[in-house]
Write a structure and sequence with these properties.
The structure is a homodimer. The first copy, chain A, is an alpha+beta fold. Chain A has 2 domains: 269 residues, L-amino peptidase D-ALA esterase/amidase, CATH 3.60.70.12; 122 residues, Ubiquitin-like (UB roll). Helix content of chain A is 33%, strand content 25%. In chain A, strands 13-12-11-14-10-15 form a 6-stranded mixed β-sheet. The longest helix of chain A has 23 residues.
C-alpha cells in the first residue's frame, strides 16, 4: 500500500511535514514536524520506564513551561542512554527548529525513536529542517505515519468524526510501534489531533482515559520502551464552545471518538507486532478486582509457552491454565476456573471441558484473530489485553535489529 | 553420550529401576521406581503453581501420612488438569505399586511429567511394574536420569562425596527440565539421595536452602510448571551419628554438598534450556534489598528483547538498561546504574561507558557462557539468576511439542 492510499481526514489548525535527514535510514523520510495553531492545547503521556530517553525528559519540561507550537520527531535514533549529552542534543534540536520558526526553544516538544545509546546527529537533523518546514501541509498525515516507522511493517493512521454542538469535529492520529511494547504508555509514539476546542485539564483526562483502554492494554513482548509518548492536540480551530466540563454531551462525544481512535491504533500496533501472525485478545472476567484481572491477563499474554502454542494454532488449554495458576492470585481456586477459545469452552471447573473436542479447539484456533476468555468466578471485575503470538520471525527480527 | 557413560556414585539404601510402559513415548523407558531403605527420611518441595497436578496433591498427602518406601515416576503424561479422575488415577498407580511391593498406598509418592490434560494410562503403567521391580539396582542411576526426560536433550546426573565423622558420605541426584522453567520450585523433577542419617526437620531445611540457591534461581521462559517437585532422601545406611542439629560441622558438610549438587543440576537444566545456545548468569549487586535485586535480575532474565540479543551475540546494553528501568524498583536513580558484560563495563552512570568499544562488547558476548553484572548502587544486597538465550529453536520446540 502506498502512503497516499491511506484514508484520513486533515485536522484544521495542524500542519505536518516530513523529510530525510539520513539519521540512520537511507532513502526514506526520518524527520517529522507538526506545526500547531496558536489556539492549540496539548495533552501528553510518557513512558514510566525509569530509564527514559533524553527527549522524554525535555518534552516533559517544555510542556510544563510553555504552550507547544511545534513537535519535532525523528526515527532511527532514540537518543536514549546518552546521558547529559543526550539532553544537550535534544535541546539543541529544539533550538534549531525554534530559530527557523522564530519561536522559543520551550515551545518545541522533541520525540525520538530508534536505536538506543547512539548520539543523536543533531547537525544532520538541523540541516534537514528548512526543506521540511517549506513543505508544511495539513494533508501530509500519510507521509507522517511512514516517517516515524522503525520495525513497523505498515503505517498506522486513523481518522474519526464526531458531532459537537451541531458541528462536525475531526480527530486523526498516527502511531508507530511493533516491538518493545508493553503497558505503562505502551505505544512508542502516537500523535493525535482534533480541531475541537478543549480545555487543557479535560484534554489530559480524555487522553488518559483513552490510553488506559488502548495503548496501556496491549503487549507484544513485555518490554516497556524508554521513549514511549502519546500526544493529543486540540487545535481549537473548529470554533465550538470550549469543552471545559466532563459531565457534558460534548466531552462524552470527544471521549468516545478518541477512545475508538486509540483502540484502533493500538490494535494496529499489535497486529503489526514483530513476527506476529495472530491478533489475540485475552479477556479475564469475574475477577475479585481489576488488578487481579489484569495480572492474570498479562501473565497469559506474556507467557512464551502460550504465545508459541498460539503461533502453532495449538489449542493448548493446559499452558493457559498453568499461566492462570502461576499469576499470583491469592487463594485462587483453580477448580472454579472456566476458559473459552472463542465460543468453544476448553476448560470447565479447572479441567478439560467434557464437551471439548480437539476438532473444535483446532477450529477456534484457525482464524487470524483469537479470543481467549477466562472466568475466575471470584467477583465481577474484568480486564482485557491485546497481544500477538510468538514466532520464528520475532526471534529473527530482534536478533538482527539493534534497538 | 550413552547413559552408561555418565559418572555417578550409588547411594547405599536406595535402589532404582526403569521400564517402558508406552505411556506416550515408544521405544524408551518412561517409568522409574525408587525403592528406599526403611531407615530413610524424605524431604520434598513442590510447585507453588495454584494449578498443581494430581500427583503433586497425592504426594503431599502421602508425605504427611506415612514414611515413603517407594517413589513412582512417569514421563510423557503430567496427569495435570485432569480433575477428580486425575487424583483417582494417581492413587490407583500408587495402589498398584503397593500391591506388588506389599506396602501401603500411602507409602508410595507419585510423580508425573509430560503432556497436560490427558488421562494417565494407569493400566499400562501398572502392567509395566512387575518387570520394573524385578530390575531394582543401586547402579541404575543413569537409566533413571534418562527415563524422566521429556524435551531434555541430555540426562542430568551428579554425584558428590563429603566427610561425616571420619566416614565418606555420598549424595547423588538426577533432574529433568528444559522448558516451563521458572522459580517457585523451578525444576520439573529432581530426585536426590544421600546415605547419611539425617533427622527429617534438618533434611527439609537442607533441601530448602539448596533449592533457594539453585532450582529457585533459574529461569528459561518464566513459565512455572504444574508438576515441579524436588525430593531429598537420606537413607541412613551410612550409620553416622544422626544429624539433628543445624549448628554442627556435620550439617554444614551435608549442606555444602547438597548445595553444590543442586546448583550443578540446576545449571545443567538451564544449559539444556529449550533452544538454548548460551548459559547466562544475571547478577544484580548493591541493591537496597534481596527482593529488588531478584526483581531486576528476573526482569532481565525474562526479557525477550534481551534474550534474542543474547542469541545474536549482540552486546545490546540499551535493552538491558531498559529492562532495569522497567523492573519496578521504587525511586531507582538510573544515572547510578553500572553494567558489565563479563569483565567489560558497558554502562557507567546510566549511559554507555566511555571506555566501551563494540569490539570489547562483541568479545564479551562471544563465549557460550555470559555473565551480566548490574550494580544498582543502592545498598549491599545481591541476587543471581541463571538463564539462557531465546532462539529459533525455542519457538520450534514449543510450537511442535504439546506440553
Amino acid at each position: 500500500m502506498s502512503a497516499s492510499e491511506l484514508p484520513f481526514l486533515p485536522v484544521a489548525g495542524l500542519q505536518l511535514a516530513t523529510g530525510a535527514a539520513g539519521i540512520r535510514y537511507q532513502g526514506r523520510d526520518d524527520v517529522l514536524v507538526l506545526a500547531l495553531a496558536p489556539s492549540s492545547n496539548v495533552a501528553a503521556m510518557f513512558t514510566r520506564n525509569a530509564f527514559c530517553a533524553a527527549p522524554v525528559t525535555v518534552a516533559r519540561q517544555h510542556l510544563a513551561t510553555a504552550a507547544p507550537r511545534y513537535l519535532l520527531i525523528n526515527s532511527g535514533n532514540a537518543n536514549a542512554g546518552t546521558g547529559k549529552r543526550g539532553l544537550t542534543d535534544a535541546l539543541a534540536s529544539c533550538t534549531a527548529l525554534a530559530q527557523f520558526t522564530d519561536c522559543a526553544t520551550e515551545e518545541i516538544l522533541p520525540f525520538s525513536t530508534g536505536v538506543i545509546g547512539e548520539p543523536l546527529p543533531v547537525d544532520r537533523l538541523a540541516a534537514a529542517l528548512p526543506n521540511v518546514l517549506a513543505r508544511l501541509d495539513a494533508n501530509a498525515w500519510p507521509l507522517a505515519a511512514r516517517a516515524i516507522m522503525t520495525t513497523d511493517t505498515v503505517p498506522k493512521l486513523v481518522s474519526r468524526q464526531f458531532e459537537l454542538n451541531g458541528q462536525t469535529a475531526t480527530v486523526t492520529g498516527i502511531a508507530k510501534g511493533a516491538g518493545m511494547i508493553c503497558p505503562n504508555m505502551a505505544t512508542m509514539l502516537a500523535f493525535i489531533a482534533t480541531d475541537a476546542t478543549v480545555a487543557p485539564a479535560l484534554l489530559q483526562r480524555c487522553l488518559q482515559h483513552a490510553v488506559a483502554g488502548s495503548f496501556n492494554a496491549i503487549t507484544i513482548d513485555g518490554d516497556t520502551s524508554t521513549n514511549d509518548a502519546c500526544v493529543l492536540i486540540a487545535t481549537g480551530t473548529l470554533g465550538n464552545p470550549l469543552i471545559d466540563q466532563a459531565e457534558t454531551a460534548e466531552f462524552a462525544a470527544l471521549q468516545t471518538a478518541v477512545d475508538a481512535l486509540c483502540l484502533e491504533l493500538a490494535t494496529a500496533i499489535v497486529r503489526d507486532g514483530e513476527g506476529a501472525t495472530k491478533l489475540v485478545t485475552v479477556r479475564v472476567e469475574n475477577a475479585a478486582n481489576v488488578a487481579e484481572a489484569r495480572q492474570v491477563a498479562y501473565t497469559i499474554a506474556h507467557s512464551p509457552l502460550v504465545k508459541t502454542a498460539l503461533f502453532a494454532s495449538d489449542p493448548n488449554w493446559g499452558r493457559i491454565l498453568a499461566a492462570v495458576g502461576r499469576a499470583g492470585v491469592v487463594d485462587l481456586d483453580i477448580e472454579r476456573v472456566q476458559i473459552w477459545l472463542g465460543e468453544v469452552q476448553i476448560v470447565s471447573n479447572g479441567g478439560r471441558s467434557p464437551e471439548y473436542t480437539e476438532a473444535a479447539g483446532a477450529a477456534a484456533m484457525a482464524g487470524a484473530e483469537i479470543l481467549i476468555r477466562i472466568s475466575l468466578e471470584r467477583g465481577a471485575a474484568l480486564a482485557q489485553v491485546l497481544t500477538c503470538d510468538f514466532s520464528y520471525d520475532y526471534v529473527r527480527i530482534n536478533a538482527e535489529y539493534r534497538s
